[in-house]
What we know:
- It is built from 7 helices and no strands.
- The protein is an all-alpha fold.
- Helix 2 (about 20-40) crosses helix 3, helix 2 (about 20-40) packs across helix 4 (about 75-90) and helix 5 (about 100-115) crosses helix 7.
- It starts with a helix and ends with a helix.
Amino acid sequence: MTTLKARLKDDLTTAMKARDELRSSTLRLTLTAVAKEEVAGKTARELSDDEVLKVIAKESKKRREAAEAFEQGGRAESAARELAEGEILDAYLPKQLSDDELAAIVASAVEEARAAGAEGPRAMGAVMKIVNPKVAGLADGGRVAAAVKKLLVG
């Protein structure tokens, strides 16, 4: 079984041979981010696939945010490139939860938190603690928080 990092490297080689500039630069930057993460702590280490996924998700989110900034700055071409890079990265991430799937998970977590006695503003933290492990990597943190807030405030 190949690791996710090995898959990224193989895909980079393929993209370079195909002279796919967008894909190769995107994968190169992502592999650099992975390498940077590997030497970030006190000791260098090999990242697990889950950790590599987190790096890819972070890179993908950066692309979305940059695209938004370019869009607001009237630089449509740069925004389009950032979005295209984001789509390349999204292909490596698990399929995101739909709004309905996310709402169902949040609703059951709210029930669970209320059963444990969490009420009012304090319930937000309790619900997030229950929801986050269930949706890790499947939904953006901002989306999750918004769904929880919506249900709690009603």
